[in-house]
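Quick question, first post here. What does this chain look like in 3D?
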Amino acid sequence: MGLLRLLRVVRIDPGATALIHCSAGVGRTGTVMAIELALRAILDGKEVNILEIVKEIRCHRACAVQTEGQYVFIHRCLIEFVKAKKLAKAEVLEFATQYANYKGGGQIQNPQTAPIVILRPPDAAAVAAAKQP
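> Answer (accepted):
Ran it through. Tokens below.
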């Protein structure tokens, strides 16, 4: 939640500028960028596909989001956000099951597409409530 709070402060202050950087400028930096891009899409009422966000970032910065742990962290942050703002949909809960199967050696037909979460756009009232500090 600390990272979510930091990103909110930067997002709501019109004069704020954020500089995100880690040692190589790809792993942790890409992770934070992916979280912020997904949060902005959620707050704009758009569908969020985390895998597609990571692919888009990688088009501009090779190796962004380097580890499985960073990829999972993106999901966990966004899941915490949608739960805290009461925007969660059933699809979000699916990630925990998919990831548990993946880590437990369960068979995934296409490992390049699992586990991912696609967050469906929430209704306008929920988005307005989520934008409140």
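Residues 2-12+19-130 form a domain with the Protein-Tyrosine Phosphatase; Chain A fold (CATH 3.90.190.10).
The two ends are 13 Å apart (CA to CA).
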